[in-house]
Amino acid sequence: MSGVAFPRLDRSVLADDGDALTFCSTCAFSQVCLSQGMDKSSLQDLHMLVEHVGPLHAGEHVFREGDPFEAIAAVRAGTVKTYSVDRDGREHVLGFHLPGEVIGLNAIDGDHYPCNAVALDTVMLCRFSFPKISVLAARLPGLQQTLFRLLSRDIGNASLLAGDWSADERMAAFLIGLSRRLAARGFSPDRFQLTMARTDIANYLRLAPETVSRVLKRFQDEGMVRVDRRELEITARARLEGLAGAILRG
Amino acid sequence: MSGVAFPRLDRSVLADDGDALTFCSTCAFSQVCLSQGMDKSSLQDLHMLVEHVGPLHAGEHVFREGDPFEAIAAVRAGTVKTYSVDRDGREHVLGFHLPGEVIGLNAIDGDHYPCNAVALDTVMLCRFSFPKISVLAARLPGLQQTLFRLLSRDIGNASLLAGDWSADERMAAFLIGLSRRLAARGFSPDRFQLTMARTDIANYLRLAPETVSRVLKRFQDEGMVRVDRRELEITARARLEGLAGAILRG
DNA sequence: CGCAAAATTGATGCCAGTCAAATCATGTGG
DNA sequence: CCACATGATTTGACTGGCATCAATTTTGCG
User: Fold this and answer.
1) Does A107 contact B155 at a Cβ distance shorter than 8 Å?
2) Among B94, B87, B117, CA closest to B205
3) Is the minimum CB–CB distance between B53 and chain A shorter than 8 Å?
């Protein structure tokens, strides 16, 4: 039952694999569509163009920068890291994508993916051909609306970390953000795995790895979290949210 | 003819105001659509739901945070600043929007605008009811595609300044970015007005106003720009692009 | 002209990055 | 099963870039 507590591959869900429809109605993207008001019959159309991918293992890529863009994908299980590599060879982590979240949206404006996407643990995906889903979206107002909203939401998210926040605020916002996103998918909001390395967190938050270490340690000393290796427990949510508030609320 | 050199209200364009169609075919959003492959007959449908707004004067708001979301808008002339105000009352500048650019896209995911939009100088707008344009997009694949691409592009843009860049890199990227966007609309890329205050630039780049002042002065001492009040001339584009490259290319 | 806001310039301090080294975790081969 | 190698993480000491504070100059506008 660790699948409930942690964003890992959940065997009980995989068991549905024989029945594509049942399977898909638990799939991340379908859930998103449903929660945004799409009706069931529209979902059936969606299922006809979905392609299930995985399991991918840690380190395997979903797509790479420069690959021809043809599809977006919804994460069904696991964590996907998106990143780009600048001309100096330095990596820039763009985001971490949890179950229920969609990757590849920033590729729509262009023929090629503008970044890499790699699995951090065991990952299951639903893949949607973008040309096909565009055609379908013209027939299904609900789907079109869902895509518009997904895209719009990403614009807001991308701006969150752009501010001149302190290391403490960044880390708090990162943890609270993770917690909320996991909670939205039915995982425990208070105890979860940091599926990414400290260096990835640091890179994503634009901090030095050493700073990530120090801030986490101080958060623990101050009783806000308990952290052991990559396992994290939030022990004083209110205070953490206080720190994160400036970033998350805006 | 200063309307060619600077992003100001251009009387020669306004003269077309009597003929809505001719007027609209020079309107920013239409130009965007055309440049992305929409045909002329589709444009006529667009014109039927466009509403021309303006002139707005410096300090007047296009929309405010919390206003019910009903429309996106294309800037036709002038500069629009988008910003939010956090709980501590501090302003956060999200972006500057030049002629040809679309504002309000980040409001699609939600019933209300998540930020304020204010005119920095004399501004003309084309306003598009979003419900109406959504319906139209279902009939016009080109329009749907255009909207998808506009949204997708904004996701990428929002990430640009998120990195841990130096003050010099940020300023260079800001100036080169402005220059390119102005050039794309037919304005001079080498000599233009900074329509926003230094404090706005600083806020947008997440620097102190004092730092903006010092960096601009140093850029001038090093011969890369000539700056007089709010007028700016780029005198060594290559070097400036070298500095900005890390940010703009990624 | 005269005031208020904006912009510049100088002096100082702090947060977080950098460098360096120790510690820990994990996997491998003997 | 243990010794060792390797990479990740932590910890400490030091440094630097940018913010902050303070004072002055310039601009915009009635």
Assistant:
1) no
2) B94
3) no
